[in-house]
Amino acid sequence: MTPVTIIGLGAIGTAVAKAYLEAGHPTTVWNRTPARAAALEELGAVRAATVQEAVAANTLIITAFTGFEAAREALEPAAAELAGRTLVTLNSGSPAGARETAAWAAEHGVDLLAGAIKNVPSAVGLPDTLLYYGGAKTVFDRHEATLRVMGGDTVHLGEEPDLAAVYELAVGGMLLPALLGFFQGAALVTSRGLEASTMVRFSQKWLEMIVHLLPSLAETIDTRDYDNPESALGLFHEGIAYDHELGREGGIDVSWQEPMHDLLRRAVAEGRADQSIAALIELLRKP
Fold it and tell me: Exposure string (b/e) for 92-115, b if CB count within 10 Å is 16 or more?
C-alpha cells in the first residue's frame, strides 16, 4: 500500500483522502484551514502541521485545488522538499496553466502528472469513475495501481502535461449548455404547474439519444464530410422560431440561445442547410 499525501481538502480532496484511507493506504493530509483535516484524522489520516511536513512525509503527492496557480502557491513553501517526488495535480485550469506547472515542477526536480476527475466527489473511488492524466508514461505506469484507487476508469492521455486540461475543457464545455437546456425545459414545465421531476425520465432518454449520435458526429468531423447527415443543420435553423415562441408562451428568457442561433443563421447563409449539424464546427474554427 503506497503511502500518499493529499494537499487541499475541499470536496474533491476530502473524497480522495477518504478513498485512500478506505483502501488501506497510509494517508497524510494538509489544508490551509486545519479544521478540514479533523474528520479525516478521525478516520486514520495523519494530519501534517505544515505543507513542508506533508510533502516530506511521502513520495507521492496529490493536490486538489481549483486551479494550477493555487496548487503552485500552496506548494511553494515546500519547494525544497519536492525534489525526487511525484506530484499529481487534480484540478480545473487551462492548458497553459498545466504547461506552466510542468515547467515549475521540472525546475524543482518533480515528476508531474496533471490529471482531472470527470465526476462528482461522491463518485471518487468507484470502479467506473473516470480520471485521465497527461505526463510521462513511465511515471504513470509506476503509480497506475495507486491512482486507480480514485477511480477504476483511469487513462493516460499522452506525454504532454497539458492533455488532461485540454480534454477537461473540451468535454466540460458540454455541461453548462446541457444544464441550461434542462433548466429552460424545467421553467416551461413548472410554468404549467407541473413538477420538474416529471421531465427527468424523458430528458434521460433524450441524452441517451445524443450519446448514441456522438460517434457518428465525431467521424463526420474527422472526415469533414458533412453531406450525408443524420441530423441536417437546416432543421435546427427552422427550430429558432419555436425557441422564441416557447419564450413568449412560457414567460422564459431564451436569450442565452442567441449565440447558437447566430451560428445556425451564418451556416445557412453559407449554404450549409442540407449539411450535417456537425458542420457548425467549421464556423467555430478560426483561421
Answer: ebebebbbbbbebbeebebbbbbb
- Closest C-alpha to 188, from 284, 277, 253: 253
At 158, which amino acid appears?
G
Per-residue pLDDT reduced to its tens digit, 255-274? 999 999 999 999 999 999 99
Beta bridge partners of 135: 113
* Cβ neighbours around 45 below 10 Å, total: 23
Average pLDDT, the chain: 95
Report the C-alpha gap between 274 and 287 in whole angstroms: 24
286 Cβ contact partners less than 8 Å away, ≥ 6 residues apart: none
Residue 147: which H helix or E strand, with range? helix 137-147
Residue found by looking up cell 495501481 in the block: 145
Alpha carbons 82 and 207: distance in angstroms, whole number = 44
CA distances from 40 to 22, 46, 105, 126 (A): 11, 8, 28, 19
- CA 221/CA 280 separation, integer angstroms: 10
CA distance 29 to 124: 17
Q: In which element (H, E) is residue 206 found?
A: helix 200-223
> pTM for the complete prediction?
0.86
pLDDT digits (tens, 9 = 90+) for 203-248: 999 999 999 999 999 999 999 999 989 889 999 999 999 999 989 9
Q: Where does residue 47 fall: left (phi above 0), alpha (psi -120 to 50 degrees), or beta otherwise?
A: beta
Q: Mean pLDDT, consecutive 10-residue segments, the chain of 287 residues? A: 96 97 98 91 96 97 94 94 96 93 96 95 96 98 98 97 95 93 95 96 96 95 94 95 91 95 97 97 92
Whole-number pLDDT of residue 286 = 86
Residues 252 and 262: their CA atoms lie apart, in Å, by: 19
Output the CA–CA distances (angstroms, integers) from residue 26 to 3, 96, 183, 239, in the order listed: 5, 33, 43, 57
